[in-house]
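Final report, Chapter 2: Outcomes

The project's central promise was a pipeline that accepts a single protein chain and returns its three-dimensional structure in a standardized token representation, suitable for archiving and comparison. That pipeline is now operational. To close this chapter, we reproduce one record exactly as it appears in the project archive, with the input sequence first and the structure output second.
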Amino acid sequence: MAYRTSVIDRHGAHSWYRQLADQLRDCVEQGVYPPGGELPSEAELARQYGVGRDVVRSALALLRQEGLITSVRGTNAKVRAPVARREVTLGAGDELIGRMPSEPERIERLMEYGVPLLAIKRRSGAVELFPGDRVVITGPTP
């Protein structure tokens, strides 16, 4: 259960599921739900926030799309643990393009939903693909 009582503004400008997603995201950022830790069940979140399970499911789907959480059917959602990053350097004349991966690209690279794919088109014409959450892009050193 969250460390504070959170309320959904029933007359607010934002949809209930977005409000819930915002509050859950805040809890993750503040360490209430640490990396690798489980969120409460859908039923518990619905009770805690006074909303239906459809609102909870939509909020969790949004957080999954953002890459903040993962879930497997039949288990509570978990906060994604940080991943190790490697440094990739762009050379003179290289181009960096960010996009969402196709389903085969996502599966091949074991990428979570919501993680962008970074494509580096090298000056030579070669193209290298990297999961966006696993690289740090740097420029050429002077």
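Archive annotation: Residues 86-138 form one domain.
This record, like all others produced under the grant, will remain available to the consortium after the project formally closes.
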